[in-house]
Amino acid sequence: MQFTKSKRTKRFNFNISRDTVSHKVGSNTVSIVTNPVDSYATSRSQITMTVKEAKAFQNFLNSYIDGKVEATEATAPLSM
Hints:
Low-confidence stretches: none
Number of domains: 1
Oligomer: single chain
Structural class: alpha+beta
Distance between the termini: 50 Å
Strand order of the largest sheet: 1-2-3-4
Mean pLDDT: 82
Strand content: 25-35%
Shape: flat
């Protein structure tokens, strides 16, 4: 089953495209596109990632967006 969803804000467009049947590269993607606005001197930029990468990014944001920082193996300082 295929579906595409989008969310637009003043500064960003968020898009997800899923095909639950296909296993082809690029059939399950998430993209974030900037919308240049007058108050920000930015050009148009885009990042595209797989749904799997987007889920990892979501977990990262969910872990740290509230300001609670807990050291884990991935974020703990390296011992020398």
